[in-house]
Amino acid sequence: MRAGGPPGTLDQATKDFLSARPQLFGIAYRVLGSAVEAEDVLQETWVRWQNTDRAKVREPAAFLTTVATRLAINLAQSARVRRESYVGPWLPEPVDTTQDPQLGAERAEALEMAVLLLEKLNPVERTAYVLREAFDYPYARVAEILETTEANARQLVSRGRRHLAAERKETVSPTAHRRLLEVFLSAARTGDLSVLEDVLTADVVSYSDGNGIRGASRIPVIGRPHVSRYLVAFAPRFWPQAETRWVEANGRSAVLVASGEQAVALLTADISTDGIDRLMWVMNPAKLAPYVASLSD
């Protein structure tokens, strides 16, 4: 038996969609790394849901998840082609998770999972990993959504785990994460080379996502000596006019950097027990604007 009103009514269709929406967004965002594209997927899912003979759908949430997931995979495959023309490193769009993560994740681990790492997987591997690890879907359901066998679904998830295990280090607590980011920010602003070298890991990587914007490095800066010296050289030009604000992005502390009224960067970091492994500077105005707007909602 279905709860709520008659299955064919628009009222009930709306309730079913809104109930599933946080999880649909969570899946689409993790597959795509883009909040804007995830919203596009949800819009198309809603249109298809309206045009479906809903009286024949026994489990609306399962139906909606299947539609949204397949749409996200298709979009991710075309997005890979589009990103080949992107200028410089591509980073996922930040999402404000202070009020409502809207990511539908049932495990805290899913919020900590760097979408950047998922870029190492192809869209189908990424989707299988997200469905299983972030949302705890049984393998049989993952296989059904991906239109594959259960054995292949297990292989896809296993492949994803191996890829990410090679990258992932032991993480620190949110408090320790914030504390080390504070130390880093102070050293970066003053150009303190010795402190920067102390908090950065030997194989640290700094990514600047600006899509060609002036001031954003077009290649990743790799290794403690290069990153620390780059930050010291960068400091006099970047920080004197900058104001900083502590915010949250994707479940972790982050720093929003503004010049006057204009946001110019969002700094996030991957931090392990060894120190800061990865610095991520989102500087592309097209990615910053939706995030900043969400902070004032």
SSE arrangement:
Blueprint: H1 10-32, H2 35-50, H3 60-83, H4 108-112, H5 115-118, H6 123-134, H7 139-146, H8 150-165, H9 174-190, H10 193-199, E1 200-209, E2 221-222, H11 224-238, E3 242-249, E4 252-259, E5 262-272, E6 275-282, H12 285-295
Parallel strand pairs: 1-6
Antiparallel strand pairs: 1-2, 3-4, 4-5, 5-6
Helix pairs in contact: 1-2, 1-3, 1-6, 2-3, 6-7, 6-8, 7-8, 9-10
Quick summary:
Helices cover 53% and strands 16% of the residues. It is an alpha+beta fold.
The ordered H/E elements are: HHHHHHHHHHEEHEEEEH
Overall average pLDDT: 87
- Indicate the proportion of strand residues: 15-25%
**Sheet with most strands: strand arrangement:** 2-1-6-5-4-3
Shape from CA axes?
globular
The total of beta strands comes to 6
Question: What is the count of DSSP helices, taking H or I runs of 4+ residues?
Answer: 12
Structural account:
This protein is α+β, with helices and mostly antiparallel strands and 297 residues long. It is 53% helix and 16% strand. The chain contains 12 helices and 6 strands. The protein has helices at 10-32, 35-50, 60-83, 108-112, 115-118, 123-134, 139-146, 150-165, 174-190, 193-199, 224-238, 285-295; strands at residues 200-209, 221-222, 242-249, 252-259, 262-272, 275-282. The protein has a 6-stranded mixed beta sheet with strand order 2-1-6-5-4-3, sandwiched between helices. Helix 6 packs across helix 8 (150-165) and helix 7 (139-146) packs across helix 8. The longest helix is centred in the N-terminal third of the chain and has 24 residues, at 60-83. The chain is globular. The two termini are 38 Å apart. Residues 1-5 and 106-113 have low confidence and may be disordered.
